[in-house]
Design goal:
With 189 residues, this protein is mainly beta. 2% of the residues lie in helices and 35% in strands. The protein is built from 1 helix and 14 strands. Strands 7-8-5-12-13 form a 5-stranded antiparallel sheet, with no helix packed on it. A 4-stranded antiparallel sheet has the order 1-4-9-6. Strands 2-14-11 form a 3-stranded mixed sheet, with no helix packed on it. The protein is elongated and about 65 Å long. 25% of the residues are buried.
Length: 189
């Protein structure tokens, strides 16, 4: 992917909170995209992409009281639609949340705010993945001219997903096996 040469042209992104978060914990994040000098045309979109390998909860927009509920607001007057797809993005980032503009456009400085797992609607928040990752990115791409060409926004915000030791009471492995119940086997951890 070619990175946009200048965040002033394509816009920039901020994420709150940032830092380290425990694996499989429930967290809420606010991502704010600020439109750049090129604006964001009617029919254009921004796309937030995630690695295909990962078991973070599936984002959804239909159940406000469920995990991984996502909402979007804007400082502008255009309509926005949300669509999550596990196979839209290019490898290695196949999971994507696309926010499309309709019925208007955005000018430089306008904002689009995405709330991942916001408890204001009753959601218990967004479920993080089960494995450690130092740089879990919220990678943003923008199709500012509505031509289907998504340009990566520089400086993608990231969080760390960490294991907090000493809190586990038991370890369990759920995996496939050719062993029968009660048959001995070795398992390395």
């Amino acid at each position: 992917m070619v990175v946009g040469p200048d965040p002033v042209l394509y816009g920039h992104v901020d994420l709150s909170p940032r830092g380290a978060f425990e694996v499989r914990s429930l967290q809420a994040f606010t991502l704010t995209y600020t439109v750049g000098r090129f604006g964001l045309h009617d029919g254009g979109a921004i796309r937030i992409v995630f690695h295909a390998i990962g078991d973070t909860g599936r984002l959804q927009t239909s159940d406000p009281s469920g995990e991984n509920y996502v909402t979007v607001t804007t400082s502008g007057s255009s309509n926005l639609s949300l669509e999550f797809d596990g196979r839209t993005g290019a490898r290695p980032r196949r999971k994507s949340l696309t926010i499309r503009v309709s019925g208007g456009y955005f000018n430089e400085g306008d904002t689009i705010t995405v709330l991942f797992g916001g408890m204001t609607h009753g959601s218990p928040s967004m479920r993080l993945q089960t494995f450690v990752e130092e740089g879990f990115e919220f990678k943003i791409l923008a199709d500012v001219c509505a031509v289907g060409h998504f340009t990566p926004i520089p400086d993608a915000p990231a969080i760390a997903i960490v294991l907090v030791l000493g809190q586990s009471a038991a370890w369990r492995a759920a995996l496939f096996s050719l062993r029968r119940p009660g048959e001995r086997f070795q398992f390395g951890l």
